[in-house]
Amino acid sequence: MNSLDTEGMLEKVRTICLALPEVVELIDGFGHNTFKINGKSFVISGESEKGFGLSFKSDRETQELLLQKEHFFKTPYIGRHGWVSIQNPDGEDWDVLTDLIQEAYLRAAPKRLVKQWNELHKK
C-alpha cells in the first residue's frame, strides 16, 4: 500500500469526522490522527507497515457483531473498552464506516450534541 492510498483514506476519514459538530483533529503521541469531541477520542487512524488503519469507539454489542466479519478486529490495548479496528478498508466499506464513525461520535459527544444530531436526523 503506498502513501498516496493511505493519504486518500485519511482524507476520507477527515471529511467524515470534521463534518460532525465541534470535532477537532489532533496528532497523538504515537503520531496517529485522532478525532475528538469534547476531549474524548472517537476515531484514531494511522499508518503502519501493514498500511492504513482505522479504529473507532463502539459498544460491546456492536463490537461483537463486527468481530464476526472478516475485516474487523479488536483494537490493541483499547479493544476491551469496545474499540474496533479495520486495516486498509476497501471502497465498499466506506458507507458502513461512515455510519460506524457517526455512531462513535454519538457515543463520545455530550448529550446536547446527541440531542441536536437526533433532531436533525429524526432518529
In short:
The protein is an alpha+beta fold and 123 residues long. It has helices at residues 3-18, 60-67, 94-108, 111-121, and strands at 23-27, 33-37, 40-48, 51-56, 72-74, 84-87.
Question: What does this 3D model show about the protein?
Answer:
It is built from four helices and six strands. Strands 1-2-3-4-6-5 form a six-stranded antiparallel β-sheet. A hairpin with a 2-residue loop joins strand 2 (33-37) and strand 3. The model has no long low-confidence stretch (mean pLDDT 90). The protein is α+β, with helices and mostly antiparallel strands and 123 residues long. It is 41% helix and 26% strand.
Using brief descriptors, characterize the structure shown.
single chain, 123 residues, alpha+beta, 6-stranded antiparallel sheet, 26% strand, globular
> What structural class should be given to the helix and strand makeup?
alpha+beta
In percent, how much strand structure appears in the residues?
A: 25-35%
The unreliable regions are none
Compute the CA-based radius of gyration: 14 Å
